[in-house]
Structure formats: structure tokens, C-alpha cells
Design brief:
The chain has 494 residues and is mainly beta. 6% of the residues lie in helices and 42% in strands. It has three domains: 2-88, no CATH class; 99-197, Immunoglobulin-like (Sandwich), CATH 2.60.40.2310; 209-493, no CATH class. A hairpin with a 3-residue loop joins strand 38 and strand 39 (488-493). It is elongated and about 160 Å long.
């Protein structure tokens, strides 16, 4: 009987509370509802459960009232109708861009021999708002040598983006987190991808030396390194170290005979300097001398694919200047024999350490001004100058007097990364007979006056500069071009 009275009392209380004549506020499990609430629920063990429905059910509601609340089981979110669209509780307006992002992979390993990269895909689906661009970026700073590319970026509303992570050999081995952020409007989604880099063989070049070979150093330091399968090698040239060559025919620094398919990284903090070409000597068909300046030597010569992190100097050797020195022959009058003579100047040596064109080992008369050597050695080397011959020459042969007036300049040597230059040559010739007339004495009779002697062969060229980096068909991260910067002088290319 008491239970029935309790039920009747509760019903009367609910009716009384629901009747405007008694109250405008309803409380459940609370006697005095908050004055600002029309309905005040109170519980420490139960929750408020709005209608639960799918997106399909929700969209089937006819003329939903503004402020209508449901729980969307499809999106797992409490949603309300704002008079225009259904919004989740965390959304501000109908045009807010919300999206989901899923990845095909969470982590991978790059060995940098089989491949220097890995790739995975990110799939996007925009769940709210008009179709908008979703832009991707890497958050934070990655170690130098790790790059991340997205294709496409941005992506409109929904679709798949291919992500490629590339690591050069000089990045230290280890595991690196890559934080990728996707941004659409004011909303962001972050994703962390982990990439592990396996070790490479490390070589430290701490002493200055000539004709450096990476392969020679590798197998000296790591005798068990494979010789018949690709390897990953990183060579670091320390500050203050000079790598050069004893001859312009050899590069200062070469990767040598690393196994095919190997990859290589050079971290240069020192000077890698190609040797300058020697200046030309003379042009003489008999001896085979051409008079051309000699080419400068290459600084770096690649035999495998490589990346270069150049923090100091890589300079191709300068070309040697050409020689403007020719073997000339003059036919004397009165049946006298011809005279052979070498006249001219040698070329200057190219930077660095190129030698000036010196007196050639030829027979006969020689009037020759040698070129000068490049000086000093090292990164501040300056090219040598071509020789200079402008003194008049007089030759007396029996009754014939020959006057030769040369104006010969040998080509100057080229600076680092520059070719040798071409000099100038002009020679005038005067021939006179000197006869003795009785009672008069010696009399000079001009036979030929200020004759401009033609050059008997084509003018030889100056030597070409050596490459800063000679690729030989291998790839390198520095674009092909001719460079003249503080740290890079000479061509990069084949």
C-alpha cells in the first residue's frame, strides 16, 4: 500500500511541476532545479541519452527543429541541427573543413644501397564543409639529407597522396620520426612516420695528400668490406686538409673502383684542388710540339652515383696558356742557305701549380720568353703569366743582315675553373745586304723592309679548365653548370 502512495505522489509532483500555473522549471532527481534551466537532470550514476541513429536515419528527419539533438552512431558524435546543417559538438559552422587521414604504413627502413628512399600513401576523406584543399607539410626540422615530398600537394577534399622519404648517405644511421601535418582551413591532423637508416662505411680524411682514392682508403680501413656487391660510403674531408694532384692528368679526388651500384657521399670541409695545366711551349711540326696550353686537372672524379655536401672549396684546375712561339724559316738572298729560327713566348701555368711553358728542346736558333708558373699553391693560387718577347733581334750571315722585330705574348694561365688564354704574335722582318765599295766603304742595301711574317700554322688554343666535379655519366645532387662561387669553381658535368 505504501508503494502505491509513493507512485501517486510522484505523478502528482510531476504534473504539478509541468503545469505553468505551478512552475516553469522541471528537476529530475533534484528538488530545486537551477533557475536558468527549464529541465535540470541530476545523477551520479546515470547519463542523458539522446536519440541514437545513423546518418541515414538523421537525414530522414522531416523539417528538423533548430537545436534538435541526436547521437550519430555513424560518426560517433553528438550532433545538433543549427537551422542549416547538422553539426558535431566540436564544429563551429557548416563550412568547417573536417577530414579523416589514414596511412598505408607507419614505419620503414632505408638501406641507401638497394634504394635511398621509401614511399607510402596517405588517404584523405573530407567529412564536413564544402570541398576544400588539404595541404601537407613536415613539422619541425629534419636532419640535413632527409627530404620528404608529397604528390599531389595540396589535394582537394578527398583522395590519396603519395609520400616519398629520401635519405642521402651522409645522414647518420638511426631512427628518425617524421611529423606530417595535414591542414584544411583551421583544422589540422598530425601523423608520425618513423624511418630507420642503416649504417654506411665512414672514412675520415684528416691529412693533406695527393691523388686521393676512396676505394683504396675504404679497403685499407675496412678489409672485410665487400668487393663484389654495392656499398654505401661516406668520406669526410676535415677542415684544413688539402687534397690535390701531382699531375693534371689525374684528378685530385676520385671514388676509384668501388663496386658497381655503390653510392657515395662526400662531406667536404677542406680544399679539393685540381692541378693546373702547364703552359704551352712552342709549335714545331718537326718535334711534334703543338704549342697548345695543357688542360687543367679535375678536382673530383666520380665513378658511382654520389651526393656532395660542400662546405668549403672544390676547384677545378685552371687551363694552361697557349704558346705563341713558332719555328720560322727565312730564305736568304744571293743563294745563301735558309735560316731556321724559333721565335716567341711560352704560356703561363694554370692555377694551381701549373708550370709555365719553358724553352723547348729544339735545334737551331732560339729567341724565346718562357711563361711563369702559377703561384702560390693552395686555394689562393694565381695563374702564371705568358712570356713576353719584344726585343729586336739582329742576325748577320755573311753579307746579309737580318733584323727581326718580334711582338710575342704567350697566353696567360687560367684561374681555378677557367681556361688558359690565347696570346698574340707579330713579327716583322727586314733583310739588307752589306757590301763594301772601294773608296766608299760598307754600304747597306735594303732587300726587304718591315715584312710581316705570317704564322706558318694555326694558332694553338689555351688549355681547358678541369671540372670541379666530373660525373662520367653518374648522378650527383649538384646541377650541371659552370660555377664560379667562393666554394665551387669549374664545371659540374660529364
Amino acid at each position: 500500500m505504501k508503494n502505491w502512495f509513493r507512485v501517486i505522489a510522484l505523478v502528482l509532483l510531476f504534473v504539478a511541476a509541468s503545469t505553468p500555473a505551478f512552475s516553469q522549471r522541471v528537476g529530475i532527481n533534484i528538488l530545486i532545479p537551477d533557475t536558468s534551466a527549464i529541465l535540470h537532470l541530476e545523477s551520479d550514476s546515470l547519463g542523458f541519452l539522446p536519440p541514437v541513429m545513423t546518418t541515414l536515419d538523421r537525414d530522414a528527419i522531416v523539417n528538423p527543429a533548430t537545436g534538435l539533438i541526436i547521437y550519430n552512431a555513424t560518426d560517433s558524435a553528438v550532433q545538433y541541427y543549427n537551422g542549416v546543417c547538422w553539426l558535431s559538438s566540436y564544429q563551429a559552422n557548416c563550412n568547417d573543413c573536417y577530414f579523416t587521414m589514414t596511412s598505408s604504413s607507419q614505419a620503414d627502413t632505408i638501406d641507401r644501397v638497394v634504394s635511398d628512399s621509401t614511399n607510402f600513401s596517405l588517404t584523405f576523406s573530407q567529412t564536413n564543409g564544402n570541398p576544400q584543399n588539404i595541404a601537407l607539410a613536415v613539422v619541425g626540422t629534419l636532419p640535413q639529407g632527409i627530404t620528404v615530398t608529397f604528390s599531389p600537394n595540396p589535394i582537394l577534399s578527398s583522395g590519396t597522396v603519395n609520400v616519398v622519404v629520401t635519405a642521402t648517405p651522409y645522414v647518420p644511421a638511426g631512427t628518425y620520426p617524421i611529423i606530417i601535418q595535414a591542414l584544411c582551413g583551421s583544422n589540422t591532423v598530425n601523423f608520425i612516420y618513423s624511418v630507420t637508416l642503416t649504417p654506411c662505411y665512414l672514412i675520415d680524411v684528416t691529412n693533406s695528400q695527393n691523388n686521393y682514392s676512396v676505394s683504396t682508403a675504404l679497403y685499407a680501413q675496412y678489409p672485410s668490406a665487400p668487393t663484389n656487391q654495392p656499398v654505401c660510403v661516406v668520406a669526410t674531408v676535415f677542415p684544413g686538409v688539402d687534397i690535390s694532384s701531382t699531375t693534371s692528368a689525374q684528378p685530385a679526388f676520385t671514388t676509384g673502383t668501388l663496386p658497381a651500384g655503390s653510392i657515395f657521399a662526400l662531406v667536404n670541409n677542406g680544399n679539393i684542388l685540381g692541378r693546373g695545366g702547364n703552359g704551352g711551349t712552342a709549335t714545331d711540326p718537326v718535334s711534334g710540339a703543338t704549342g697548345a696550353g695543357f688542360n687543367g686537372g679535375h678536382a673530383v672524379n666520380l665513378t658511382v652515383d654520389a651526393v656532395v655536401q660542400n662546405n668549403f672549396n672544390i676547384y677545378g684546375g685552371g687551363g694552361g696558356g697557349n704558346a705563341m712561339a713558332f719555328s720560322l724559316s727565312f730564305q736568304l738572298p744571293l743563294g745563301l742557305p735558309a735560316i731556321g729560327i724559333l721565335i716567341g713566348a711560352g704560356g703561363g701555368g694554370g692555377a694551381g701549380s701549373g708550370l709555365g711553358g719553358n724553352i723547348p728542346s729544339l735545334f737551331g736558333l732560339q729567341f724565346y720568353s718562357p711563361g711563369t708558373n702559377a703561384t702560390p699553391t693552395g686555394q689562393f693560387a694565381t695563374p702564371g703569366d705568358g712570356g713576353l718577347l719584344i726585343l729586336p733581334i739582329t742576325i748577320n750571315q755573311s753579307v746579309v743582315s737580318i733584323s727581326i722585330n718580334p711582338n710575342a705574348f704567350g697566353g696567360d694561365g687560367g684561374g681555378y675553373g677557367y681556361p688558359g688564354t690565347t696570346g698574340a704574335f707579330q713579327v716583322t722582318l727586314s733583310i739588307s745586304l752589306v757590301v763594301s765599295i772601294p773608296f766608299v766603304g760598307p754600304v747597306t742595301i735594303p732587300v726587304l723592309t718591315n715584312f710581316n711574317v705570317p704564322i706558318p700554322v694555326p694558332i694553338p688554343p689555351g688549355g681547358q679548365a678541369g671540372n670541379a666535379i666530373k660525373r662520367n655519366g653518374n648522378s650527383v645532387n649538384i646541377p650541371d653548370n659552370n660555377y664560379n662561387t667562393s666554394f665551387l669553381k669549374g664545371a659540374v658535368g660529364n
